[in-house]
Every structure is written in C-alpha cells, then in structure tokens.
C-alpha cells in the first residue's frame, strides 16, 4: 500500500494505490478465513519459522521504505526530488540494466538514510525496545536499553538533521564535527584533507568508550543497530542463530574462516575506498562509484543497503548479523580496540552456556 501511495504522490495517478489497498484487503481476509496457515509446525510458532519470518520482515521493510519516501515527498517536497537519482532509461539493454540498478541503489540508500525514515523507524522499533525494557528485570540491561533509545534519537535523528540546521544554520557541515558528524567513521563523508582531525577525534572518542566500557558501548548503545535488533519481536528471533545453516557457520567462540574472509574483504575495501576518496578530493584522481565519492559509496553500500537486506534476512543470516558475520567495519574496529580494554568475558562453566535457552 505504501508503494502505491508513493507512486500516487509522485506521479499523481491513484490507480496503483487503489490496487494496493484491494490487494491488502484480499490478504487480510485470506488470513481471517484460513487461520490454520498460522498454526504451529512441530511445536514452533509461525513467527519463528524461517519462511514466515522472512516474509514478514521483507513486507514490513518494503512498506517502511516507501512510507519513508512518501514522508519525504510530503514534508520536504522541494528537497527530496533533487536527492533521488533518476537516470533516464535508454533502449540499449545493457544500459537499461545499469541505469535501473543505479536508480534502485540510490533510491534505497537515500531513503534509508533520510531523516523521516530514520525517525519513523525509531518510533516503530523503539516501541519494541520499550516493551523489552518493561519486561526486563536486570537494572544494568534496563539502563543500557534506555541509553540506546536516547542515543538513537539524539545521534541518528536530532543532531544531524534537526539540531544543526535549526540551531546553527550557518555552522560548518556535519563532517567538521567529530563523532556526531562521523557516526560510522570513515565513509560518513569524503576523506578530504580538512576533515582529518575530525576523523581522528572520532576514532579516539570511540576508542576511549570501548576501552572504558567494552565493545557494547558502540555496538549496543551508540550504533543504530541495537534499536533494530533488541526489541521484543526481533530479539525473539535469536534462535535463528543456531537453527539456520548459514548463521551456524559464523556462530563460534573462535573466528571462523568465513568470518575472517568477510572481515578481510570489508576492511580492505574500507582502506582502498579511503585512499581513493582522498586522492579524488585532492585532485590526483577522478574516480567515483555509481557517481559518488568512493568512501560515501561504501557507506551507502554497507549501512544503507546491505545492512537492511541482511536485517530482512535474519531467519537465514541470524540475528545481529552485522556483528556475527563481521561485515560492519565500525564493529570490527571496536572489536579490535576492546582487546586492550578493561572488560573481558571469562567463562567458568561452558555447560551453562550450552544449556542456555534465552541466548542472552
């Protein structure tokens, strides 16, 4: 329905919206008439069956992407069209494929990084975290959940898109501000000579937090991922980390071969993208990927496209797969710094971990 609404707002034709409403009504009445399809299989709730869980997450994500795009069209009609890549399609098949991929990639990356999409996701997924907070008895966990809610609201929505434009309209760009302006480190902006100090202070700040409080200070509080992963519904899907064949290949107390390969590819691409971005900024090279600075392209690829695709694939890739699979370069750097921190996990009895039913 949200896709139809977006097409209606952009092109002024309400036919797609009307058809999408009818389709949703058909699906609703089918669920009412045939409730047996939601019955348990082998004692497992339908929500924890991979195909149903994947379909649910995929449908919700598609709806939220177009809802975010619709909000941008309505609330920022002058800015949003100029931010969306829209290469005209030609009659050459090879050119059509490239331009379709180009338009689709930047539409998804632009929408998932937009203010209203992040705000909407924060409200929806934040509500699930509030439910988790209410049912959690551990004081430490309750404090951490409260902190991650505040961090998401402040660092993902308020500071980058409200605070600077509204309070300091003539202030330097966000890339001049350490940590807040470089939320995911390198890739949050082009690697220009004038931002070296901001990048350095960003990693120093992150490193100090990791050393003092452990890797969770980044991966479970300041990052936007914990808000998505730690709400009641998604948190209940942790069982896929052990039931999914792909997720099990990454689930180990030691670094698996796949984890090492994934992490290596990500870190090498980050290093190469940073160098190319710097050379492009100083004019030594003129190189772009899909029309964007190499570092900005990597940021969009990993955190605006791959992250959400793997989030939808939790039933097959496992929960918190940005950490377990090793493809988040910010988490990889935080993990390396945590080895010199004050916190370390010592297991006295491994059988306690094996018998754990909650996977906490």
Indicate the overall shape: globular
Strand content: under 5%
Mean pLDDT: 82
Total domain modules: 2
The quaternary structure here is: single chain
What would you say about this model in short?
The chain has 360 residues and is mostly helical. Helix content is 67%, strand content 0%. Helix 1 runs antiparallel to helix 2 (15-33), helix 6 (115-135) runs antiparallel to helix 7 (139-167) and helix 8 (196-213) crosses helix 18.
Structure, explained:
With 360 residues, this protein is mostly helical. The chain has two domains: 1-83, no CATH class; 114-354, no CATH class. Helix content is 67%, strand content 0%. The protein has 19 helices and no strands. The chain has helices at residues 2-11, 15-33, 50-75, 80-83, 93-112, 115-135, 139-167, 196-213, 216-222, 225-229, 232-235, 240-243, 245-250, 257-281, 294-312, 314-317, 321-324, 329-338, 350-354. The longest helix is centred in the middle third of the chain and has 29 residues, at 139-167. The protein is globular, with a radius of gyration of 22 Å. It starts with a helix and ends in a 6-residue tail after the last helix.
């Amino acid at each position: 329905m949200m896709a139809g609404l977006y097409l209606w707002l952009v092109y002024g034709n309400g036919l797609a919206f009307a058809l999408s409403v009818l389709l949703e009504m058909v699906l609703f009445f089918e669920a009412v008439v045939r409730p047996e399809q939601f019955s348990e299989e082998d004692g497992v709730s339908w929500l924890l069956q991979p195909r149903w869980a994947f379909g649910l997450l995929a449908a919700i994500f598609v709806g939220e992407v177009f809802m975010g795009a619709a909000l941008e069209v309505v609330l920022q009609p002058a800015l949003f069209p100029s931010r969306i890549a829209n290469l005209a399609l030609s009659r050459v098949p090879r050119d059509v494929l490239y331009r379709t991929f180009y338009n689709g990639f930047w539409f998804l990356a632009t929408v998932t990084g937009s203010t209203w999409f992040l705000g909407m996701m924060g409200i929806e997924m934040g509500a699930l975290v509030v439910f988790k907070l209410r049912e959690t008895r551990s004081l430490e966990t309750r404090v951490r959940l409260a902190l991650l809610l505040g961090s998401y609201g402040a660092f993902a929505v308020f500071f980058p898109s409200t605070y600077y434009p509204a309070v300091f309209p003539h202030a330097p760009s966000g890339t001049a501000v350490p940590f807040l302006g470089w939320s995911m480190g390198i890739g949050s902006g082009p690697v220009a000579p004038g931002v070296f100090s901001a990048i350095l202070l960003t990693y120093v700040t992150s490193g100090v937090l990791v050393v003092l409080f452990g890797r969770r200070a980044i991966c479970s509080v300041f990052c936007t991922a914990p808000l998505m992963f730690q709400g009641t519904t998604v948190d209940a899907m942790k069982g896929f980390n052990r039931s999914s064949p792909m997720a099990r290949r990454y689930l180990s107390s030691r670094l698996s071969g796949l984890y090492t390969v994934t992490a290596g590819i990500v870190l090498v691409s980050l290093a190469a993208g940073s160098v190319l971005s710097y050379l492009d900024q100083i004019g030594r090279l003129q190189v772009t990927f899909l029309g964007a600075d190499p570092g900005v392209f990597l940021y969009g690829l990993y955190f605006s496209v791959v992250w959400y695709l793997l989030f939808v694939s939790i039933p097959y890739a496992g929960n918190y797969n940005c950490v377990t699979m090793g493809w988040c370069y910010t988490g990889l750097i935080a993990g390396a710094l945590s080895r010199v921190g004050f916190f370390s996990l010592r297991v006295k009895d491994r059988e306690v971990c094996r018998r754990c039913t909650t996977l906490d």
